[in-house]
Design a protein that fits this description.
The chain is mostly helical. The protein folds into three domains: 87 residues, no CATH class; 143 residues, no CATH class; 84 residues. The chain contains eleven helices and five strands, in the order H-H-H-H-H-H-H-H-H-H-E-H-E-E-E-E. Strands 3-2-1-4-5 form a five-stranded mixed beta sheet, covered by helices on one side. Strand 4 and strand 5 form a beta hairpin. 26% of the residues are buried.
Length: 321
C-alpha cells in the first residue's frame, strides 16, 4: 500500500506538472483509493495554484475538483462507518523532533515507535542527515531569492511543498492531533529527493560533490545501523518448525500483531489470537478482518495442543488435561 501510494502520488505530481489531465485523474483517484493521505497531495496542488495564479495558468482547477468529487462518496462512507478512532498508536511529537524532520522524511525512520529501545547511533545519524538536507534546502532558498529564473522559482516551490511543506504541516498539526507517521508520508521522500537534486544541480560542483559524499556516507551508515539494530524476527522459521511437529488438529495461539503472519505460513483455520479479548484488539491492527471466533480464551484439551507463539519467535506447547 505505502509503495503504491508513493507511486500514485509521484505520478499525480508529474501529471500536474505536465498538465496531463487524463493521467492526473487516473493517478490521483487511484492514490485517493489507496491511502487517505493522498488528500494532502491534492490540497497541496491546489495551494500551489493559489500562490502561482499567473505562472501556473493552464492547469484547470476543475480537474482537481472532479478528482475530489469522485472520492467523496467513499469518504462519506468512511466517516459513517469508522470516523476517526480515539485510540491510535501515534503519539504527539516532542519539540526536539522538529530538528530531525528532514532526516525522518529522507529515511522513513520510525525511531519514536521502537518501544522503550532508544538507539543513540540511529538518532545521531538522523540528526546529521537533517543538517545536510537543511543545508541543501537553505542553499535552495538563497538561490530562489537571488538567482533563480521565474521558471526555476515555480519548480522549486512545487518541490518544496511536496518534499518539505506537507511533512512540516502534518508535524505541526500533530502537536494538537497526532497524525505524523513516517510511512504515511512516504510520498514526501520522493519530493525531498527531487528537491535535493534540483538544488544540487544549481550549485558549485565542488560544494555539490562535498554534500553528495557526506549524504551518501550517512545513507550507507544508516542502512548498516538498520541491519544491526532493527532486524525483524524471523517468524517464518518458527512457523515452519511448528508446521513439522504439529499434529493435524493442533492450533497456533498468537497475538493480534502476528496473527496474519501466522495465518500466511500456517493453516489459517487453526490460528487464533490468545491473551486478550476481542474488545481489547485495537481497530488499527486489522480488526475488521478478524472475527470474534478467532479469539481463544482457553487452551484446547489434550491430545489437541496449542503452540503459543511469541513475537520474538519463541513458542511453548500447552494443553488442558
Amino acid at each position: 500500500m505505502y509503495t503504491m501510494f508513493a507511486f500514485f502520488a509521484s505520478l499525480s505530481y508529474y501529471a500536474f506538472f505536465k498538465k496531463d489531465y487524463r493521467l492526473y485523474l487516473l493517478s490521483s483517484i487511484a492514490g485517493l483509493f489507496t491511502q487517505y493521505y493522498m488528500l494532502l497531495v491534492i490540497f497541496s496542488q491546489l495551494f500551489y495554484l493559489i500562490i502561482n495564479k499567473k505562472s501556473a495558468e493552464g492547469f484547470k482547477k476543475n480537474i482537481i475538483y472532479i478528482t475530489l468529487f469522485v472520492f467523496l462518496p467513499w469518504f462519506v462512507y468512511f466517516l459513517a462507518q469508522n470516523g476517526f478512532p480515539s485510540s491510535f498508536w501515534i503519539s504527539k511529537p516532542q519539540f526536539k523532533d522538529i530538528f530531525g524532520l528532514l532526516g525522518v522524511v529522507y529515511t522513513g525512520n520510525e525511531y519514536s515507535f521502537y518501544g522503550n529501545t532508544f538507539i543513540q547511533a540511529i538518532y545521531q545519524n538522523l540528526f546529521y542527515s537533517s543538517i545536510v538536507l537543511s543545508l541543501i534546502t537553505v542553499t535552495g532558498i538563497f538561490l530562489y531569492v537571488k538567482k533563480f529564473t521565474p521558471k526555476d522559482k515555480v519548480n522549486f516551490q512545487l518541490l518544496f511543498i511536496w518534499g518539505i511543506g506537507i511533512a512540516a504541516f502534518v508535524g505541526l498539526i500533530s502537536f494538537i492531533k497526532p497524525l505524523y507517521f513516517p510511512r504515511y508520508l512516504i510520498f514526501a521522500t520522493v519530493g525531498l529527493l527531487l528537491l535535493a537534486v534540483f538544488v544540487l544541480e544549481k550549485i558549485n560542483i565542488y560544494f555539490r560533490l562535498f554534500l553528495i559524499v557526506v549524504l551518501m556516507t550517512l545513507t550507507f551508515n544508516y542502512q548498516k545501523l538498520q541491519i544491526e539494530y532493527r532486524k525483524k524476527t524471523d517468524l517464518r522459521k518458527a512457523l515452519k518448525e511448528i508446521q513439522i511437529i504439529a499434529g493435524k488438529n493442533d492450533l497456533i495461539y498468537t497475538n493480534d500483531l502476528d496473527f496474519f503472519t501466522a495465518q500466511y505460513y500456517f493453516d489459517e483455520n487453526r490460528v487464533f489470537i490468545y491473551g486478550k479479548s476481542y474488545k481489547e484488539i485495537p481497530t488499527y491492527n486489522g480488526k475488521t478482518l478478524i472475527s470474534n471466533e478467532k479469539v481463544a480464551s482457553t487452551l484446547p484439551f489434550y491430545p489437541q495442543k496449542a503452540f503459543i507463539l511469541k513475537s520474538n519467535g519463541d513458542y511453548t506447547i500447552s494443553a488442558m488435561y
